[in-house]
């Protein structure tokens, strides 16, 4: 695996993007702090996925710049987990986890296969490494996609609702796994779940309005994720965040 260096801050300046004839955001500025997890929330259709895709360099016809804090491009430093699992149906779960290396023409040796296998074990699929996607449930496929993202070992990680298709217990366990494995990375997570954001995030952002603007008026406790979802301070912040999201929905209609 090529060495990509320490996790950088990500700076978005003057971002402008329209979708379906609607202006999602205009002159949007954002700095995503280095080596921290930022959670992005907001109503459906406000532009959360579009902002994630813009950071990944996948948003067509967008304006603005995305770079690290020194102004350098992020090429080769991003791992991106989309909402859809995007597994290749003719490959096993193990080979889907390794697909990034294969697409880059890298040699996949025994060490890489062991690491991919270990990641599948950690997401609860140690007994399904040879299964193809058609033999896996939707939640299992999402766990393979998570393992594939973690396998990429990039300093910047973008995740679009990575735990949305999982049952409550598996979701809780994999949130903790992601928090552990992604420690020290610059992470941007889109989620619709306020409690998930409070459990995982060092920083919370709410995207709202047309065109959308960012609000950071509700922030998680200062301690390191993952936090206990039953903590009274976390539950109190969940109530505040739900109120803020309710206002965001009204502003976006």
Automatic annotation (TrEMBL):
Highest taxon of source: Bacteria
Organism in which the protein naturally occurs: Ferruginivarius sediminum
Protein family: Belongs to the ABC transporter superfamily.
Record has ATP-binding as a keyword: yes
Ranges of residues in domain ABC transporter: 10-234
Pfam families in alphabetical order: ABC_tran
Gene3D superfamilies for this protein: P-loop containing nucleotide triphosphate hydrolases
Name of the protein described by the UniProt record: ABC transporter ATP-binding protein
Keywords: ATP-binding, Nucleotide-binding, Transport
SUPFAM superfamilies associated with the record: P-loop containing nucleoside triphosphate hydrolases
